[in-house]
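B., you asked whether I could sanity-check this one before it goes into the benchmark set. Here's the sequence:
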Amino acid sequence: MSYFGSKCIEKMEGQGTMQDVLSNHRENISTLAAWAMYSRGLEAEFSYSVLEQLSLLSGHAKESGHGVHQMTQLLWCSIDNDDSRDLDQISSIEQLEQGNVRVFVAVSDVDSVVKKGSPIDEHARLNTTSVYSSARVFPMLPEQLCTDLTSLNQDQDRLALITEMTFSGDGLLIESNIYRAVVRNKPKLAYDAVSEWFEGVGELPEPAQKVAGMDTQLRMQDELAQKLRLLRRSQGSLELETFQPHAVFDGDIIIDIRQQPHNRARQLIEELMIATNGCTARFLAAQGTASLRRVVRSPERWQRIVEVAESYGWSLPGEPDGEALQAFLAMQHQADPLRFPDLSLVIIKLMGRGEYVVERPRGQSIGHFGLAVQDYMHSTAPNRRYPDLITLRLLKSALAGEKSPYTYDELEALAAHCTTQEDAAQKVERQVRKSEAALLLHDRIGEIFSGLIIGVGERGTWVRIFTPPAEGRLKGDLPTLNVGQKVKVKLVSTSVERGFIDFTIVH
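And here's what the prediction gave me:
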């Protein structure tokens, strides 16, 4: 067992009684998250060599001259979670003639500080992603980098890679270009506040009020994003709604769990990032460079998806058809929004997980079935995802006319590794969410909750309660239950360490 694993066990065993564990939710969830990472082959802490390299860094990267544009004058803005400090991308837009618009998406040039093969890079390669829990973020890069030196922070000049895109008035991509630049984020904004302003239920966020013209800037970006979203939906992009509960803390104690809404501001960033990722994928292909693509293959279990649709009285074609599947999902979302997250989960499982693959120039693109795009990669979050840092290096070498920093065999090995580690990180995050819910519900044993049956099978019967949004297992003698059925359940036990929540049915 590693030193870290031993220390985790010591910390857990040293907590004493359950009352001790419940006295500081944040600390104990952090410990559980660290242990879950260790058990799945992820490193929760940075090594001595990483810290040593970090101590030698003198500041953020500075570069000028040929090939590096000065673009600090644009009305750049970032939109992210309320508590996000690792800002990977910012965006700006300008009006052109004939109803066209030009969009700029700037992605942090993390490679300017984190060089391939360095100790910091090796840690990032091992984990391949930041791991998020409500109590603590385990960043892929040290905080001194991802929240400062390589973060596109407000009012700071930073090196970035720019994807410039021109769209027609109806949202069709006309042309794109990629180059390097120095940028300056004007306001740091948050999803919920921006979305409330879009929807007319809140004021323009204060940081945006301080920047002349930012209100028009945001409206233009939102208008384009909604056009892009409608175009993708018409081409078969799947509008799925997953169960994403988030613990809310008051100091060090969890006081609530809330479902994270997928609002207009999130849609704005999602659409601009999808467009950017498509442009970077096509750029590398045009340069004759192998690239790391993010794909979701055409579902091999399509027939099972057809059967699910039939159970709702809907007929799907015999062959995979994203447009037909989206029409079914849209109808179900409108007809039964309460149960739609559970239907979404079923479809996601039947579609199969996303994966990273290497695509050679002029090779056949696998594409992303769920997003209804043929050319797609991860390139817009190099502070948080290692595949994006790989892509950043590929783009920079192509722009400089240099040999690729990765061989084809290296990319193949990295694709498999990143797929495995990303899957491990997602399992850690799910496990921690369950422990958070168990902590919140621990002193409510015996209470009755309303919920929905979300799973019935050989491994057990599962229920999702509405308030707080949490999932658990039904115990004891059960009547015949069907997925989607509303039930009343009584909470009978919780296990914070294992993330278990058990209910019995109330007849």
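One thing to flag: Confidence is low (pLDDT under 50) at residues 1-9, 12-19. Otherwise nothing jumped out at me.
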